[in-house]
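Box S2. Input/output pair 1.
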Amino acid sequence: MKRWNWFEILLILAVASSGLYAAFSDAQNLSMRWFIRDDAYYYFKVAQNISEGYGSTFDGINKSNGYHPLWLIVCIPVFALARFDLILPLRVLLIVLSGLTAGTSILLYRIFGRIFTPVLGALAAIYWAFSTDILTRVYQQGLETGIAAFFIVLFVYKLLDFETTWRTSPPSNRQLMALGILAVLVIFSRLDLVFLAGMTGIWIILRKSPMRYLMPLDIVFIVVAALLAIIFRVTFKEYYKFSDVAIVMVAVGLLLKIPAAYCLGLYRRSTLTNPARLLKQLCLFAVSASLGVGLVMMAVTPLAGFDGFPRSAIAYDLILTFLFFGLSRLGAVGLWSGAGATEDEPSPLKTLASNWKTWLAESLAYYGVVFGALALYMLWNRLAFGTFSPVSGQIKRWWGSLSGNVYGGAASNPLTFFGIDYMGEGNAWHPVSTLLGHWAELMIRTGLVDIQRYLILIFLLGAFVYFTLWLDKTKARDAVTQLAVIPLVCGAWLQVLSYHITGYSAFKEWYWIAQWIAVVLILGLVGGMLYSLIPNSRWLHIALWVVAAAWGTSMGVSYWQYIREIMPYGETSPDAPYNDIAAFLEEHTEPGSRIGMTGGGNAGYFISDRTVINMDGLINSYAYFQLLKRKEAGAYLAEIGMDYILANPALINQLPYNGQYTPFIEWMDIRYGGKTLMRYHPAAP
């Protein structure tokens, strides 16, 4: 057996043994120390109800689609075991997640092993498998992040296979459809990964043109330029008053600027390698495209009923478009100079005429699968639940549109808005962003504020990565292409922006899984480029494996200590409750009671002979969401026989609830933590 196969076996054994140890520890550990996220139990309870024939419902009363579908499908057979024992499915699920951890780690090992060297792949795999940070954020919560990470990395791995085959033989429709199916699995693991699937389609179909590298970047830059133009004009504080204008400006920019850039030769190798011609075409493009966007926006504004369009935003958009498109082209000139550039290159129109049939056929093969599956999913949602998309996402966008700071509110600062914050739930590019933010806070003698220092560090890191690629431009081109870094980063950034452009409340740190994988791939890319500078020798190879073994041992020991600490054996009484809130409710309510909670995932799964109804709507029906907006949800809950509410009284009298439950509440002096148990009954006539 080859040496790296032994590494895979050892990795699987280490991850599996840790997972089995945790899975068979005291029962209460699973519910009180491992799977503690309320959101995870939304999946668990719905999966249990489906397995028992009640349909897609959390409470057995209201149909709900507030989940990502692929993880729910995985959970259904697992939580069919809940009819025998509520803890048994949690034990099985922990083992499933351990398998996903090992699978993702091995894929990272193989990716870097093929592109650079197995020892670099081993370092990436060790980090992914034994980082307690990854464990707590990606796997321990019991959410969809574990399966999303696996399919993203598998997608990158299959794209690496694609890169090694299409250069020798044209891809068949079957190959493209297979990639489309894998993209569908990525999307269904987390629906917001549709941007990654979209960017990857460009990467695949335009593979013989510089467009594959530049167009995904251009799409991101067009979005960012429009948003910055509006923010510079109206200030960030006032942005959400003009968010509709910004969205339309982004759409118009995409429709006009990409064709304009193509027609003006900004995707031609001969233009990219001729600085004078490039500068001329960039100026012509920025002026014509931005003015075109401005004219369309001025025409659309009265038709759409906008309060107004800030016309000076056109000037900002022009400048930013020139800078962003110029930046990406300068990068291409540096790293891709001489890569197939010829003066007799066909004109853009001739290139389109000779390639459009191939591009169309391949687009139908890939995007037909991707968007066909997505359309069927949305249609099924409409027929089964009355809405095309998960109700949980709609509710959080509604929260973000309300005044005040409802459940955290929309993005509160520009760093969060543009997805580059280093603190809180908006910290998308962890752990690098977290580290840079920490360094920025330590640089207290520079005379600059934390944000300025942080942005400087981001710039310096970007410059370091770029100039590392310069060390061997041929190897860098191949590695960047094989790792699919560009579509991954662009898709991940668009995912972040999609939340903040319209205002989205209660976004969470586990949303940003594609970003974390992108960080790992980029760090591995830098490490691989540095490794390629070192003369290869047998002793160096041995030394690097010794370093990997030492690092793996250190991380493995820390990982094992963490598992043993939080998942002990024999320290909890078998009679102890699995969930304290469920035990509290069972003590103070009658069997058969219907109990409302803002949240309630854990209690809903563990409670006996009672029903928990989700009041915030995240795992309730679309009809309930409409009632919430009309302030009629209180009457509805009375109609279906709600008996109690366990909630923070101050919360239910504020946005988004606005006291709509108050007429039906009878106050009781029974409290659990910061929540009060209240009796609920039909209002007096």
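Box S3. Input/output pair 2.
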Amino acid sequence: MVSYVVATAGHVDHGKSTLVRALTGMEPDRWAEERRRGLTIDLGFAWTTLPSGTEVAFVDVPGHERFLGNMLAGLGPVPVVCFVVAADEGWRAQSDDHRDAVAALGIEHGLIAVTRVDRAPERVAQVVEQARAELAGTGLAGAPAVAVSAVDGTGLDALRVALDDVLAAVPAPQTDGRVRLWVDRSFTITGAGTVVTGTLPAGTVAVGDTLEVLGRNSTRTVVIRGLQSHGRAHDRLGPVSRVALNLRGIAAEDVHRGDVLATPVGWPQTTAVDVRRVSGGLEDTSAWLTVHVGTAAVPARVRPFDEDHARVTLDRAVPLVAGDRIVLRDPGTRRIVGGAVVLDADPPALRRRGDGARRSSSLAALDPGGDVLAEVARRGVVERDHLVLLGISADAPPDGVLALGRWWVHEPTFEAWQTRLRSAVSDLHDRDPLAAGMSRGAAGDLLGIEDPALLGEVVKAAELESAGGMLSLPGHRETLGPAEGAVAELEIRLRAEPFAAPEADDLAALRLGARELAAAERAGRVLRLGEGVVLLPAAPALAMRALASLAQPFTTSQARQALGTTRRVAIPLLEHLDSRGWTRRIDGGHREVVR
């Protein structure tokens, strides 16, 4: 099903609701108070089918300045606008506010409806010219204009055709993207439970899907029990649609306008964004403004860096990504100050003098879609999925960025890691030649790397050896430093008598303690068996030759005599042979050689 959503815009009492009613046959004003006063206070909704067969829903917004926040909630998530100007009154004060909202949101598709032509047919050309002039700085500068009267039906068919043409030019939305639906209503239906509504701009929702409600103070997991659009039930709905979702897992009073239904773990929630001005001004604004995004209105502090860039610190976390548009409104005057595009939804902290000026220079070089090289360079290392989460296009790493598994690393950072790690390991060897090396945990702490796979890439690039969880320079394991002479003397003794393991006093006389022997074993110079039994690495093979000549099976005593050694040496040596599968223990007193 091809469907679209169109929002109305325009000065109060210029006939927005009346026009929607005439086009759809539905009453968009939902509240009795609205119908009694003839004044739209909150958002209204209606839908119809155009001559092409395209289904279109209308979000009817209030025009009065007191309800500007509600207007922005309706306009925020909608990509197409029908801008209404009455022929008998022309452009008015709230027309300015709605124009400023269109400019701030970057809406580029829509049309101009000159209403109430039955009252002033002679003014149509003048009002069209005036509207085009006022909209010149917006995406609606070249929008088609249609003169209509909801009273006598003049121009309604032409308006429907014009809508068809406008909607045909709207780029196709992404159907397989992550879902971010800004909630505009939440209520309870008897027998069904909680229902929320909103405009689905991208992605697809289906019955049974699990989503997250990103609320003002919490995140809740919910399941879609049912879906409706335009009054009909659906199993699945794609963009751009007005959708009503029956949710399981949350009460209606726990969901509010401005909350978001989102793909689980699919959106970053941020309390600070760096932005670029797209309309209005930033430098002369009040420090505290209201940020409108989607259907949300959030108090925020604005810190301008220059006339085009600023840091916006939000009163609560909001799911924003690079490229999102926000509207800045002064809560005191209720006027729209301007609009901005998010450049960075995960900006760096500003702690030192001059950080603001430096950040201004960095932002001036950023594209709204994000500069991958700049973002990776700023962080040094970042997960590719995190960049995508922030709305930064990351299809392939640019020059200067290494893709290492799930990590993207700035090449200078990677080179610095290698140098620092190799230097630290070398310094450790110099301080303590007998040390096995630096533990992988210490290396990770040194570089600030927690992921073992990423650390492994650095170790490999730094040309370090890794064994037993320890990192060392190539060849270091063969270096025994001051213990070299004693180990060489021990080797001479054991070559003469392979199974005459030295006693503790002999090792002490040679000044071979546990650290020296451990280093010798790592170098492949000795073999330690059990508590204090030290032989040469060739001893097990020599023992097998002697044991193979015995009648099978043999006793421990027979093995001791064949090897010409003591029980202190024979027992741990036999157990070592058992562990390697060279001999097999038959019972408490007998073993045999495994053939």
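Caption for Box S3: The radius of gyration is 38 Å. The chain has a mean pLDDT of 88.
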